[in-house]
Amino acid sequence: MTLPPFVYHLAEAENWPSIRQHGLLSTRRLLDRFGMCGVLREVLERRHRPARTILPSGTVIRDQRPMPPRALERCLVGLAAAEWYALLNGKVFFWFDPERLNRQRRACSGFPQVVLTIDSERLLRHYADRAALTPINSGNARRKPAPRSTATFVPYHVWAESGWRSEAEALRTRPRSPRHPPVELAIDDAVPDVMTCVLSIRRLAPHHFLPVERPAARSVRS
Q1: How far apart are CA 138 and CA 149, in angstroms?
Q2: DSSP 8-state code for residue 180
């Protein structure tokens, strides 16, 4: 089983100084860092965020418009919506496909962004034990969403051994083809040294998108 040589992370431009200093932090880690607690913590971590949130530090937390509670509840297996929000808020996400990154960019096109192109092999060398792959966009519950649960996040080493089999067994769905490509790479908690894995940095002005350039064929072997 192989992975593409690069992954991509789309970040709010306002967060760039924090990323350079502290790396990529999950929403949960950001809330820890700034001492968020009580009702406000509950709202930001376990409830739907219909709009982007700016913390007192100036750090931006993205909205969750593509997964409103009613839509999410229809596709969750064994979890409540609050648990799914909390699960995603504990991870840092990367795209394999720049076209999918541009779909996310379209949702926040009015705000400047930063795109990090990251060496997959180097990232997994440090974080394989905390890495998982998903066969779907876990943050979108619209338009006939696929069933999902904690099993949607297939640990990297499990995926390398048996592809998507564990997801199908847990959800009792038809197994996906071994050729079904991963959509997201998710790493638990934080990637504090992400800058050591970054190959390029591109700033996107409002309403600008990442040019889709197909890299030379090279893959990360498990």
Answers
A1: 10
A2: P
pLDDT tens digits, residue range 66-123?
999 999 999 999 999 999 999 999 999 999 999 999 999 999 889 999 999 999 999 9
Residues 20, 121: Cα–Cα separation, whole Å: 21
**Strand 60-61, strand 220-221: pairing:** unpaired
* pLDDT tens figures, 135-172: 999 999 998 899 999 999 999 999 999 999 999 999 99
Q: Do residues 204 and 115 lie in contact, with contact meaning Cβ atoms separated by under 8 Å?
A: yes
What's the rounded Cα separation, in Å, for the pair 131 and 154? 8
pTM: 0.93
Query: Which residue from 88, 136, 115 is spatially nearest to 10, judged by alpha carbons?
Result: 115
92 forms bridges with which residues in the sheet?
Answer: 187
CATH numbers and ranges of domains, the chain: 2-209 (3.90.210)
Name the one residue in this structure whose structure tokens are 């709009």: 51
Residue 103: closest CA among 73, 137, 126, 71: 137
Between CA 60 and CA 12 the distance in angstroms is 7
CA distances from residue 131 to 54, 93, 140, 158, 185 in whole angstroms, order as listed:
27, 10, 20, 10, 7
Look at strands 131-134 and 6-12 and give their pairing: unpaired
Q: Please check whether residue 76 is in contact with residue 84, taking contact to mean a CB–CB distance below 8 angstroms.
A: yes
